[in-house]
């Protein structure tokens, strides 16, 4: 993601160096805090190619600061290790030849202790940079710093997703943390909320932090539409399963049906039937499924098939954003500590932020007028704009300070290890 | 594709039974005419899974009439062979278990002669149906008949694409027909044509034949934009190749770069360098490449990378349709007999129809308010609305009577055996 | 296979040119005779990579004579087509880059008619060579000629195996010929025939035609052993199937069990259960299985698992050869026209030649003192001496004049499209 | 491997319980001693499917004692963990469904500490069993114990092979231990040692410990032959590489050539060319290659191609055993601590034991009269008797007390991560 526009540079200058340092330390500390429950062995493994070992996340986020901030801006900076450049580059081909992603879990070295030393080395240097950078350069440095911190927050969420997957495929089914017993309230009843449509404006305004894929702000023509007042629940999704949902090709997109049959999918990821009832893996270990919680860990294909079976459809991303535009970014996000979706409460449009990411009907494409930045930051978002789908709203593992109504997350339609569910839409 | 709306049933009734029969015979005859240059052996082979043997196309189009028209509407109809239902079903899962697509080329039986007998059997029955159907049912039968004829025309184009591929992978490089020597005029110089944008209406009106994916007609908000006056030429694309286009990851979408490296692509499909100059396979055999012809047989990834390298972009499908809205459907289409793209002539917006299909920037998605029909016709288009991209405008192998300005063709972004090229766009 | 030893050159000279020509014409004619029942389409297809299209066999055997006999020995010989050298080279890497074997079925050209013209061209040239070669060279030419004819006979058997496979995977299950109804006699009861073992001599003597892999003749130490008097029958093998043979890993070699599970094998190739009884595909089409016929189309893994289940073992190849040493080469071979195994008749050691190839317990390895010939003929047999198993005795599709007691056939342990069955052994 | 014959039970009884316990503790301790240089992370990873994580080896060898000794013989034995039965079963299908081998490296749990607790638990129980078992049962228990200890020694060698591979694929190329600098003596010059052949007896006698695949002892007829006095050196193998050995198909077995081309092999495993000289990975890290050391980490295909290129051949396993029959089991084995092959010294037949395993020309097949034991021990060796090749003589990572002249090691012909090299043979 390229830096924000020049125009708000001055506003940022008013944030003192102290506040930047505090923000940096807070986010960096959170990544390490997240790892406290892990054994050394847990830092190393990679259950499937799309998952990365926790120690890789810790190192890669440091590499990001080292490569994009310290090397260009901190004079005399000494890189920590000459081979970490390739080892911890994720996919920036303008910066070298990344170590192959599916092989991240076969590297026992560097050890976890070395990775923490790498973090300390980078942290000290970033602190030095914040203190020593010329006032004239501070705005530019702050932009990259802010990007690096948002990047690190994305990897905090990825780390939790990945630990969950690594633990779920282990026959011992270890727990990441001791989760509080759910209070098991009923989900609020489903209602429909109407929106008038029309020519609306979506996307991030030019001020304030946002990723480049949220810009430019632009007009979209919408017909009138309705959104469900809450997310689809486990109970509702189980009805689809019982009704033969995974055995009826007419409900599925063609590529979805191929995916279902090739992978022998019979239910959402992590669902297991034991003695006639559904259980599922959570970050707190195996638990009997709460019927009122939002369904989680479904792919786009499953979300779409469920909507077809329901006689409804998925929301468009502009529809979703228009509905969310006035809402406060609050809900069951990472900050609550639950790390698991919870039943909807209250009336009106609920669960727009948090619990689970919501699949939208749209492919992940550039907004009109979008241009990729030059250099490595142009690889941050733009090059993924094919074959993926947009998700909105954040999940119970997304830090609140990382989210916005205009935020566009994206995954392949077959991906389901992220905390993803769905909300139904209807009309026009 | 579901039948058109009830409202234009009466208009269709005015077409006499004779005119329907004549139209039927004309299209069906064209499929057989197309196959005249083939040896028996050419009807059988399948070079790659996405290609089908010519005899399969001839049988499948007959199966379509048999299954969707004769079985439900012609009383006493006797199906030709009990196993053809599965053998020649392409992908209609509501109609049985189709024979696996990648294995179509391992079937020596039924023989070509048997397939032609199958066609005759179906043709006689359709003629009988047209003659004998109640006036009250004629409108409905005519809708399915019209759909079947458009379906057959799609397969005429596919058959030519497939024969070209089957011949191109053969080291003997046989020619399908004796193509006239190109006159080799220069391509018209590139100019830019401006469009004002605004809230425009796209999609097929409710009257007249169109596929369901072209409906409903709806509003779209467009910023001002410009389109290139003609298609990108071989010469222009060769400059991209010479400039290292296929070796520079920064120009490519991430999935595109994976495709390039995994398949070792170095140029468009069918290009071969011989003694320092480019040759390519055509339906007339191997020919030295004409630099002024539109580039053909490029994937979406290549089209997008070329546009990035050019500092431009691909047109959106709404932009393309808006520009094409007032134009006559005319150009270097199948009916010219060239079966190969030709250099642009004249001034103004050229080559909008014919020569090569134009990749647009858009994923193939339902228009707002689109609903899949129930039953097998719901599988015609709707279930393919994931992971594919829209192409517009038709090619030199597309029958003119098959095309419209609202026509949406679609292929996977890695596909390139269809006659596909690109036109550049710019703005907003 | 390298030419025989110099020592018998004189013996061969006594065969007149006329007799060589007659022998050549007889074998070559038989290949074409075999193809009479085929439609043009049947010549083209390749159901799996190890099967070749019939037209490929017809062309490859001609290529063998052209490349190894005509090019080096017939002055002024004009090759038929410059690209046939690579197209019809099977695996002789010293002679160029063979066209990829799994892709032989995607070539519609050359047509079948062109392949027959190729054969005529080669036949005329070979006739000319036989007539015109110097007496001094005749011995050497005759050696290659004899090798080429045995090579062609191998391909006659392969052609029948391949046609059977091509027809068997076709849902229409076409028949190759009209097979006479089986007389359905009972199989002779199983008896055991004892052999004393000791230090015996096996392998082909230095005189007369034999492949290089049958030489040199050498000593082997054998313990006393017994052989079953006849082949294992369908009935006996069905008992293994009913007893859960394909679901019990303890009966299988480790690689065999992997093969069974990965391919979901549940019975021999071509077996199909219909309404509770076994049917199988034959060259005469689908037929109810005769329980008394020898089991056919089993892999080495299945043969070995059956033997383990029976508490017996497979014969060693030296054991088999010692037992066959004094027998006449006669039985249900190609020459009977049955093209299908038949129940054992009579007393004593039966079915040693014909019906089905018998898997032996031995890997295909060089005899002590074996040396590969230099040049392309060194690639005929020697380079396949890894990972394959020896079969002995010939099958109902093997020409009688092609077989010997010392003949070593070989296939991979998972192969089962050849006509292969087994005979049990016991002791020491 | 099944227990030895009843006949030597009495001899074993003379070994006191104390001596069995001491032997058990010595071998078990060695496995843990071997792991001292490892970081926790090194215990977890699996670079390729055929390699296992060190913690898996430590657990699996304990599982072997638990399952085959403690469960059946120690009354009241409480298994350590109910799921370890499947997790640490390697391939004994009669004992349950083993966890998939290629996925051993994705399990972070049990932790290394838990695995060591598992070992202690088992060790205490085995000690208790040795102390408490009835005298009448001691012989039988001792047989299984002895098998378990040989099994553990096999895994000690595997563990070193696997750590080497895990470290070699890591771009940081960590060292397992600090190896002493090689003294770099020249290899002894190559001489040929003659053997008369004849009918010889090979295989293990019925007394004393041996694996079942070494029995029964039996006669083999051998022609006269010669063996090279020492192993092939790096220098000699490098000459093959320089001579285009990896680019000349005529030198290779057909399956070998496929392996070479599919894997782009250009030299033995672990060889790397840096600035024009060869380096290779060792357990002491990357080192410049010593030209006089035996070549190591070659597959059967490479060994065979080298022999062909040399105009020689590989020894038969009977030839090798006959030559080794009178020799003392001594050489550069694990006990020297070198863990790397060293140049040959002295005159006469050298390096028969130790340095590298020697590929023989023979497939791994049962000796005449071999019968698999019933139950899980029947799976130890017998089921692998297809598609593998025999190696003889042990390597620098093989414990001396584990080896015998009759010992038959076996690997697939493409395997090369074991310490394998070759000795040339000649004649008859």
The figure for the number of domains of chain A is: 2
Structural class of chain A: alpha+beta
Question: Which fold name corresponds to the CATH topology of the largest domain in chain A?
Answer: paralog of FGE (formylglycine-generating enzyme)
Radius of gyration of chain A: 22 Å
Question: Order of helices and strands of chain A, N to C?
Answer: HHHHHHEEEEHHEEEHHEEEEE
CATH architecture of the largest domain in chain A: Alpha-Beta Complex
Total E-strand runs of chain A:
12
CATH class of the largest domain in chain A: Alpha Beta
Largest sheet of chain A: 4 strands, mixed
CATH level 4 superfamily of the largest domain in chain A: paralog of FGE (formylglycine-generating enzyme)
Number of helices of chain A: 10
Q: What does this protein look like?
A:
4 copies of one chain form a homotetramer. Chain A is of the alpha+beta class. Chain A has 2 domains: about 10-170, dinb family like domain (Four Helix Bundle (Hemerythrin (Met), subunit A), Up-down Bundle), CATH 1.20.120.450; about 190-425, paralog of FGE (formylglycine-generating enzyme). The first copy, chain A, contains 10 helices and 12 strands. Chain A is globular and about 65 Å long. The two termini of chain A are about 35 Å apart. The interface of A and B includes residues 199 and 301 of A.
Short structural description:
Four copies of one chain form a homotetramer. With 428 residues, the first copy, chain A, is an alpha+beta fold. Chain A has helices at residues 9-13, 17-34, 54-73, 84-87, 112-132, 135-168, 234-242, 254-263, 300-310, 317-324, and strands at residues 192-195, 198-202, 218-222, 225-228, 271-274, 277-282, 285-288, 357-363, 389-392, 409-411, 420-421, 425-426.
């Amino acid at each position: 993601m390229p830096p924000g526009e020049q125009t708000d540079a001055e506003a940022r200058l008013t944030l003192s160096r102290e506040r930047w340092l505090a923000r940096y330390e807070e986010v960096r500390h959170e990544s390490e805090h997240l790892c406290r429950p892990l054994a050394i062995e847990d830092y190393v493994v990679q259950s499937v190619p799309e998952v990365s070992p926790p120690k890789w996340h810790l190192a890669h986020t440091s590499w990001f600061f080292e490569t994009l901030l310290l090397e260009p801006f901190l004079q005399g900076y000494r890189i920590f290790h000459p081979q970490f450049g390739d080892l911890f580059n994720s996919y920036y081909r303008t910066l070298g030849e990344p170590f192959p992603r599916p092989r991240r879990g076969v590297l026992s070295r560097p050890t976890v202790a070395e990775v923490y030393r790498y973090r300390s080395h980078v942290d000290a240097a970033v602190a030095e940079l914040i203190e020593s950078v010329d006032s004239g350069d501070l705005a530019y440095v702050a932009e990259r710093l802010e990007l690096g911190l948002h990047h690190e927050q994305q990897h905090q969420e990825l780390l939790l997703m990945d630990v969950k997957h690594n633990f779920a495929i282990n026959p011992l089914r270890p727990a990441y943390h001791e989760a509080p017993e759910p209070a098991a309230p009923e989900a609020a009843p489903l209602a429909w909320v109407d929106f008038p449509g029309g020519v609306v404006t979506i996307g991030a305004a030019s001020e304030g932090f946002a990723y480049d894929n949220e810009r430019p702000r632009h007009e979209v023509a919408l017909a009138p539409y309705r959104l469900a007042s809450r997310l689809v629940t486990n109970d509702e999704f189980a009805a689809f399963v019982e009704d033969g949902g995974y055995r009826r090709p007419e409900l599925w997109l063609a590529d979805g049906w191929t995916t279902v049959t090739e992978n022998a999918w019979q239910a959402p990821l992590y669902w297991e039937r034991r003695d006639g009832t559904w259980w599922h893996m959570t970050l707190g270990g195996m638990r009997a499924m709460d019927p009122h919680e939002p369904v989680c860990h479904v792919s786009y294909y499953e979300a779409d098939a469920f909507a077809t079976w329901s006689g409804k459809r998925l929301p468009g991303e502009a529809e979703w954003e228009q509905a969310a535009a006035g809402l406060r970014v609050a809900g069951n996000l990472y900050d609550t500590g639950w790390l698991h979706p919870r039943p909807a409460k209250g009336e009106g449009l609920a669960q727009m932020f948090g619990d689970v990411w919501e699949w939208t009907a749209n492919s992940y494409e550039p907004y009109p007028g979008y241009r990729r930045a030059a250099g490595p930051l142009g690889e941050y978002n733009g090059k993924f704009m094919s074959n993926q789908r947009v998700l909105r709203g954040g999940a119970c593992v997304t830090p609140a300070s990382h989210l916005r109504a205009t935020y566009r997350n994206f995954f392949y339609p077959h991906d389901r290890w992220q905390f993803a569910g769905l909300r139904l839409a209807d009309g026009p």
